[in-house]
Amino acid sequence: MKRVVLAWSSGKDSAWALHVLRQTEGLEVVGLLTTTNEAFDRVAMHAVRRSLLEQQAEAAGLPLRIVPLPWPCDNGEYERRMAAACAEMRAEGVGAVAFGDLFLEDVREYRLRQMAGSGLEPLFPLWGKNTAELAREMIEAGQRARVTCVDPRKLDPSFAGREFDEEFLRDLPAGVDACGENGEFHSFVYASPSFARPQRIAAGEVVERDGFVFADVLSA
Q: Tens of pLDDT along 23-68?
C-alpha cells in the first residue's frame, strides 16, 4: 500500500482529489499538505483562515502538515521550504504526493521538476478530465464550496462569495473554465463525500486586495 500525502489548497479540486484517491486501490492517503501566508495566517490565494483549514482536516480525518511561507515570498524560498517538507515526509514513509491539477501543462511540468530526486512520486488523480463534466460531478455528489477569490481581469467581481453550484456554472461567461483552472476563481470546500460531516460557515466581508477580490468565510 503506497502512502500518499495530498497537496491541499482548501478548494473543491483538492477535496475531489481526496475522494478519488480514497477509491483508488493500492493507495492510502495519510495526510494533507498545505502552505499558509505567515503574515495573514491564511491559505495563499484562497485566503482561507487557518482555523477553517484545520476544521477541514478534522472532517477529512487526516493530519494536516502546514508549511508557513513569508510574505512576500520568492520562488527560491518557496522551493526550499517545500523541499524540506518533502524530505520529512519521505523519512516518515510517505511514497507519493498527489495534486489536484486538471490540465495546465506548465504547472504539471513544474511539479515534476520539483519532485524529481525527492523520492516521492507525483500523482495527478484528476488530470485530463473534462472540467465542465467534473464540476457537475462534484456538485451532484454533494460537494459544496464557496468562491473565496476572483481575478477581476477574468471574471466579474460579483462572483466572489457565491456558492459553487449549478446556477454558478450557468452564469459563468463563455471562455471561463468551469473549475477555474486558469485562475479565474478559487474556492473553499465545506462539505464533501470525503468529509465525515459538513462545516457550518457564514459569509464574511468582500474586499479587493493586490488586484484580486476576496470573499472571507467565517465559521458559523
A: 999 999 999 999 998 888 899 778 899 999 999 999 999 999 999 9
Beta bridge partners, 43, equal 36
Locus of grid cell 495546465 = 104
Q: Which helix (H) or strand (E) holds 169?
A: helix 166-171
* Rounded-to-integer distance, Cα 55 and Cα 64, Å: 10
**Under DSSP, is residue 14 helix (H, G, I), strand (E, B) or coil?**
helix
Domain 2-123 class, CATH top level:
alpha beta
Residue with cell 462545516: 199
Cα–Cα separations (whole angstroms), residue 36 to 8, 29, 39, 104, 168: 11, 21, 9, 23, 27
- In whole angstroms, give the CA distance from residue 177 to residue 184: 7
Q: How far is CA 179 from CA 65, 83, 100, 152, 212, in A?
A: 25, 28, 11, 16, 18
User: Which residue ranges make up each domain of the chain?
Assistant: 2-123, 135-219
Give the Cα separation of 184 and 176 in Å (integer): 7
This prediction has a pTM of: 0.95
Number of H helices, E strands in the chain: 6, 10
